[in-house]
Specification:
By secondary structure, this protein is of the alpha+beta class. It contains 1 helix and 9 strands. It has a single domain, classed as Lipocalin (Beta Barrel). The protein is globular, with a radius of gyration of 17 Å.
Length: 119
């Protein structure tokens, strides 16, 4: 009986810790995407977390676009942004003070590190 209570308590602590960690992903994050061709693109994301759902916007040269199909599992997340009928997939990991994100469009893949925008 004591083991079951302890295991339940431990599970709840882990659940609330993971929820609190991903809640810190809320807000604006910025970075710089560098392509293999030497091009550089500024990145600006505004993330909103609700449970395991990630929503928000991505600022692009075509304006602010919605984040689609956003999901969070622990400290990892996925979403996509659609620009000119092209789906750009994002897969990231939250590190507390930074976010690593892999961005892919077809076979082209890039990595960027995002930092929180000071309020």
């Amino acid at each position: 009986m004591k083991t079951r209570i302890f295991a339940t308590f431990l599970f709840l602590i882990c659940f609330f810790y993971a929820s609190a960690t991903t809640e810190n992903l809320n807000g604006k994050w910025t970075g710089l995407l560098k392509t293999d061709q030497g091009d550089e693109y500024p990145l600006l994301y505004s993330f909103k977390i609700a449970g395991t759902e990630l929503t928000g916007t991505a600022k692009t040269p075509k304006g602010e676009l919605p984040i689609n199909d956003g999901k969070i599992t622990g400290d990892k997340f996925t979403f996509n942004v659609i620009i000119s009928n092209m789906e750009i997939d994002h897969e990231g990991k939250f590190y507390g003070d930074s976010v690593g994100v892999d961005i892919s469009l077809g076979d082209a893949k890039s990595h960027a590190t995002l930092k929180r925008v000071a309020q």
